[in-house]
Write a structure and sequence with these properties.
The structure holds 2 protein chains of 2 kinds. Chain A is built from 15 helices and 11 strands. By secondary structure, chain A is an alpha/beta fold. In chain B, about 20% of the residues lie in helices and about 25% in strands. In chain B, about 30% of the residues are buried. Classes of the chains: A alpha/beta, B alpha+beta. The complex binds zinc ion (ZN).
Chain lengths: ~400, ~180
Amino acid sequence: MKRVGIVGVGTTQFRSRWTEKTYFELAFDAVKMALEDAGAAKEQIDCVVYGIYNDFFERQFQPDLFVHDYLGMAPKPGIRVSTGGATGGSALSAGFAQVASGLYDVCLVVGVEKSADCLDYESGKSSPEVLKAISYTADMTYEQPTGRTAAGSFALTTIAHLEKYGNPTELQMAKVSVKNHTNALLNPVSQSPIALTVDDVMKSPMIAYPFKRYDNCLYSEGSAVLILASEDAAKRFRKQPVWIQGIGAALDWAIIGNRKDLYSFESSRIAAKKAYTMAGIQHPLEEIDLAELHDAFTGTELIAYEDCFFCEEGQGGRLIDDGIVEASGKLPVNVSGGLIGCGHAVGATGIMQTNEIVLHLRGEAGKRQVAGARTGLVQSIGGPGAAWTVCLVLERE
Amino acid sequence: MDKQTFLTWAGRNARRIGVKKDLVVQAFEKAMTSQAGPDAPFEVPDTMHINMRYSYGGQSRFFREIFENKRLMGTRCSACSKVFCPPRTNCPHCYGRTEWVELRGTGKILSYTTVYFATSSYIKQVPYIVAYIKLDGADTAILSNVEMKDIGKARVGMEVKVVFRNQRDGRITDIYFRENG
Ligand SMILES: [Zn+2]
């Protein structure tokens, strides 16, 4: 297997809505940024992987066709990946395989998503119709008709965890929300950079018990793109590569009632373990300098600390209480603001998270730079109750 | 665009996408009747809508027994004896065939949530409880709604029993659960 490095990154602004740009125009902007970052011409790209989640969001089935066309990538090979919230991570995983196998030298990975063109005319708001579009990716035979939402599927697991371990408490979840919104203040592409208090979060309206408004991530529109190259090909580009040292993926039972336990995300534990084994990480809390974890909901970030083996099972809440995961802590989590502060442009999210780590490992993260960062972790999850997880360990030389 | 032209346009689009005209007017009036520059974003009403018929295939008996006989069925693997509800015609563990078994319809909540903000199809029903229920005699859990007077009283471990709706449509929501006892 060939060594694979990231040689160029580009992320557009994440916004609640981009009326000025279509999905293919957003992708174009991020591709142009990534090419400029790498000092690459589009002719140097051998193949493309597209991460685009929901066809309703784009108002286009098989939207990758029209992104590829708009980017002028014809007739290079291109494939599209769609794995819910993990779409970005899975696209990266597919791109990694294209290059690691030796099939192609340079692979462009394009994540893009709209959502807020979905409109509930009755309320004049996007959210209920966005949720409806998402609901068609739940099991249509037995589960979708019950009216369980995306937040609901993660709330079910969080409640089971709370029942078993007595946490995450609503206070601990509120602290995560405050942390991620605050971190977003220093990220120029973030959608929700706001100074919040724990009280603001606790008093925000309930969405799906125990998650309140500010425990939820945002619906975002935006694009994030990166360029993968083999070790030899990486020499053609101007930036020091950031190496993908470990990659792990799992797809758990999607009908959560088929799982052995409901209180943890087994796919996340397996994916993290595989990525660590491949990268030679033995003590994650000691060896990882910063992590971008999939905080679709505050409760899931707290459980992710456990699933990524930063602590024992049931101890996730302690890491926020002790300040370990704060931007100034021992292991900063979601310095970008995460999905809660920076935003969740679904297909782009895993790539936005990866790009954030790349900037830190290069020392290019500006005011939010984690000093001396050498090793970073990305966790990308999706599907009901984190059916999918992809984890990546990134390192600089 | 002048007001009259706008209203005609809104009416035509409202019919096309199946939304009340006044709602289309509400959503577009400001943008369509003000002086926007030639490069301002141009938004139009739209929809994506497919009518279907869906066969439950090998799972048909589960839905038919609820619909016609108010009976709740699961399936049992003839090789490894695991009992599935929701049912499966094939066992995902040993790939054995399964046979139909009737369940008593009592069980326990494994986990639950209360939904306060829902999709546009459900937004008028909030708040409501969605729970994974492990039926007595089954090895897997089914997602369903739990209806109770005091919605704050739902708990993990709560004993529940199935209720068949009086008006049934042949969908999974023909059943829901209530506290048992
Ligand atoms: Zn079996």
